[in-house]
Write the structure tokens for this entry.
Amino acid sequence: MTRVLTWPQIESVLEGVDLVAAMEEAFVAYSEGRAVVPPVGELILEEPRGEVHIKYGYIKGQPGYVVKIASGFPGNVARGLPPGQGVMLLFDREDGALTAVLLDEGHLTDLRTAAAGAVAAKHLAPPDVQRIGVLGTGVQARMQLDHLRGVTPCRSVLAWGRDAGRLDALITDLGALGFEAEAAGEPAQIGAACSLIVTATASHSPLLDEVRPGTHVTAMGSDTHEKQELSARLVGSADLVVVDSRDQAALRGEAARAVAEGSFDLDDALELGDVIAGRGGRTHADQVTIADLTGVAVQDLAIARAAAGI
Amino acid sequence: MTRVLTWPQIESVLEGVDLVAAMEEAFVAYSEGRAVVPPVGELILEEPRGEVHIKYGYIKGQPGYVVKIASGFPGNVARGLPPGQGVMLLFDREDGALTAVLLDEGHLTDLRTAAAGAVAAKHLAPPDVQRIGVLGTGVQARMQLDHLRGVTPCRSVLAWGRDAGRLDALITDLGALGFEAEAAGEPAQIGAACSLIVTATASHSPLLDEVRPGTHVTAMGSDTHEKQELSARLVGSADLVVVDSRDQAALRGEAARAVAEGSFDLDDALELGDVIAGRGGRTHADQVTIADLTGVAVQDLAIARAAAGI
């Protein structure tokens, strides 16, 4: 019997779940080759423009397989609708029966993305973060900070965004989360002042070119070959670059751009699952580390299982 | 607001729907290049073995896009479960919202496949069919005949299957559909006696090598490169070979096998959508025509729209 869960139902199931731990388990399984994750399916629509991604896969030995459909329709914003839409399906791995339909409206993707940012910060941030920086003023800017509260005691934030009104709204929302947040006039101020930085924009050109020694940057905005938040120089000069998936990093995200521009070699990157499992990571407080997250289907599998309570 | 429909609800919506007309429209749109149908996504599972296919796409100018997940778990049969499982999702093409979840348990795929067989017979069968032949004793053998009732007045059937018990059961079921059905001892008897033949088996070697002049054959059992129901000689000697998708026919189905064996050139095939639109077809009662159907995502789109009532 298929269970159909609406977003309020899913939210209440997830209240008691440690999503950081769920993501850690998923990343480790992925990096240890226990995940089967075929290439992402893609459907492009025109007039109005929309982009649909279909991610699917399973972890060997686990009871379910998952299919996630997530879309972005940029024109929705002008119509007062959220740009992201989506649904997750969880199937029984033994007989193919549809176990659960998670009508999450895209929220689970936001959640698992934010939880992955917290995982990256937990394992890569320098020991004593005095100020957190965030680039971008969208849903992820809020959610990343929300989830960072569980992995760092720092409550001081410097935020930047292109749109002054949206930036103001973000500052207010971060205040409600318990942060002392201030607006930066330009991205470089954040590079100069913060030691834990999250980039959560849809930028197509580099916003950040320089950070202080002892900084960790989680770049989660770029998930296509075209998007870029960090300069290739910054990626190439970092002491450690960590990617969620080496296969995906070859095609999209910050590492892919830096490779294309000749300033980085993907062989020098570690996978996040390997860092979590203790096979590498930050070795000195003064190192610059970058986590380049493009989103992997195992994250969807982990959060779908958590949401369905299995 | 997402609507969730169970199979009994879908069945009742479809009662008033002309599926043959819906399939005709879909095939024409496909052959006229108005459909966007990315490559099929595939997930293979082991222990127990399962195969999951993800088909998705849309027709330009229509309001929805569809994602279909359909799976086959051969081990289900021994456990008393249907091997096929599935779900169809219909999304709003304007904003990406999930319009409907069709919990069809795979039945919609069976239906659209059977309706496509009726479309092929409607446009390609000779004018005066005295006897229909069917190879295979599974779900499609019944459903193809069920749907043929709408496109031919003939009610005489000769049926063949490997398993005598299953063949008996089919004869009984066809009787309930209003057919006078008899069992054939071997496939060649059907080729010798029938002028409208449907092959609906999972055979991996040719069952039919010769038919009478003025016969139409719809081969719908073969949907992989390995499966084959018609000899390459029969395909090569037909007056007209029609495929649902030339792209797919290059990779799988009867035409692909005949091309591989050197007895057929795919440039000589017409697409079913072109035949429906009047750009070719049977020109003489004595011709032998073959429709080689492998199943196209636009069929799923058409039946999902019909089932959701939009």
Notes: Chain B has two domains: 3-108+298-308, 114-297.
